[in-house]
């Protein structure tokens, strides 16, 4: 297979106050989410002037990937398109067609399997290509990278750095808490070719980061950023409830490592640096939030290595033991049931 472009696939985020509501309507498109719920989420964005950091983080990653490709003699133009906000993937795909691209490799900013983190990016690609019509380039998504050293090692270093900010005399009562985006339990059950893969991969990443960064600590994997109606079960416990139960078990300090994410976007800086940090303060827990990879050089090199792996120029590089594959089976990770459907 000959590939002639690279495309960064991401979630997208608002870049000014007037973007916030239209962005949120795009996120929940077709799901019958009430406006009151959206207004609540909009407020989180308004605390940051209506600007999510995620788009700038994508620009920074794209620039770093271009430099990385140039340094390795990889002659692929690099594009960027989002699911929910400009630059929208369909516009990017139209540009790629105009530039003569025929078959691109896509890198999504999520390390894991599941509908929201993987399959929906395949759907985004299909929808963008359908919109562009004849001549739209084929886009093959690069594989999930939950156990790649270029993802695990930056998380592990960040855990070490966070731990160093906490009181060493309380190390024996310090806990390492990994978090990821909660998803509906039904979506978790059907994640991956044989189900449960989102949680299984997150557990593997957690185990690897723990072993590399702080094997002396006990650890837990918990969930954050739940949305949706309360009667629909999502993965639990929530990080805030978990902090309550840790405080009750005489834990004194926590390092929170958001292994579910690749950059410090709004779900991290609002839900962890604000909400969870407030909960910890109220409980008298020492609290440190570890960084995500962002543009860590090892993470940027990982993107290059995934491209080279796909083109047969580099070996498979990984630390875990769960199955790895390139193209996802058609039947995996079905979309959630639409309300009223
Ligand atoms: C697994 C997962 C990831 C990680 C993988 C990946 O990164 O792809 C992720 C990332 C993100 N989620 C984000 C924001 C939002 N997610 C929402 C809603 C939802 N997320 C879900 C799952 C995930 N989400 C689900 C099952 C829903 C409900 C159903 C739906 O509606 O799809 C809503 C709706 C409002 C609400 O009800 O909270 C918002 C605003 C941002 C942007 C942050 C920024 O702006 O900096 C990012 C990176
Ligand atoms: Fe989300």
From TrEMBL:
GO terms for molecular function: ferrochelatase activity; metal ion binding. It comes from the Bacteria. Its main location: cytoplasm. Signal peptide: none annotated. It is an enzyme of class 4 (lyase). Gene3D superfamilies: 3.40.50.1400. The keyword Cell cycle does not apply. Pfam families: Ferrochelatase. It is found in: Cytoplasm. One of its GO terms (biological process) is heme biosynthetic process. Keywords: Cytoplasm, Heme biosynthesis, Iron, Lyase, Metal-binding, Porphyrin biosynthesis. Fe(2+) binds at residues 181, 267. It catalyses: Fe-coproporphyrin III + 2 H(+) = coproporphyrin III + Fe(2+). Fe-coproporphyrin III binds at residues 52, 121. Its EC number is 4.99.1.9. Belongs to the ferrochelatase family. NCBIfam families: hemH, PRK00035.2-1. Involved in coproporphyrin-dependent heme b biosynthesis. Catalyzes the insertion of ferrous iron into coproporphyrin III to form Fe-coproporphyrin III. This is Coproporphyrin III ferrochelatase. It comes from Paractinoplanes brasiliensis. The gene is cpfC.
């Amino acid at each position: 297979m000959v590939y002639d472009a690279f495309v960064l696939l991401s979630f997208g985020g608002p870049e000014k106050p007037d973007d916030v509501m239209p962005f949120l309507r795009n996120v929940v498109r077709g799901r019958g989410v009430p406006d009151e719920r959206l207004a609540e989420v909009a407020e989180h964005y308004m605390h940051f002037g209506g600007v999510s950091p995620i788009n700038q983080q994508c620009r920074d990653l794209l620039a770093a990937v271009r430099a990385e490709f140039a340094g390795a003699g990889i002659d692929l133009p690099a594009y960027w398109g989002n699911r929910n906000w400009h630059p929208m993937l369909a516009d990017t795909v139209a540009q790629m067609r105009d530039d003569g691209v025929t078959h691109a490799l896509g890198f999504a900013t999520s390390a894991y399997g599941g509908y929201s983190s993987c399959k929906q990016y395949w759907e985004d690609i299909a929808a963008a290509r359908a919109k562009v019509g004849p001549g739209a380039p084929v886009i093959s998504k690069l594989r999930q990278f939950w156990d790649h050293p270029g993802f695990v090692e930056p998380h592990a270093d960040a855990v070490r750095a966070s731990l160093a900010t906490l009181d060493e005399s309380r190390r024996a009562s310090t806990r390492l808490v990994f978090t990821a985006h909660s998803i509906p339990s039904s979506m978790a059950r059907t994640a991956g070719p044989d189900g449960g893969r989102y949680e299984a991969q997150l557990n593997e990443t957690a185990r690897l980061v723990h072993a590399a960064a702080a094997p002396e600590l006990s650890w837990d994997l918990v969930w954050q950023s739940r949305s949706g109606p309360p009667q629909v079960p999502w993965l639990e416990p929530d990080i805030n409830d978990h902090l309550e139960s840790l405080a009750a078990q005489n834990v004194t300090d926590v390092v929170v490592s958001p292994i579910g994410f690749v950059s410090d976007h709004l779900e991290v800086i609002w839900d962890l640096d604000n909400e969870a940090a407030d909960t910890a303060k109220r409980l008298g827990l020492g609290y440190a939030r570890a960084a995500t990879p962002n543009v860590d050089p090892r993470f940027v090199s990982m993107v290059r290595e995934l491209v080279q792996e796909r083109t047969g120029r580099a070996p498979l590089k990984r630390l875990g033991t769960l199955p790895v594959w390139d193209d996802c089976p058609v039947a995996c990770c079905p979309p959630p049931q639409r309300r009223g459907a």
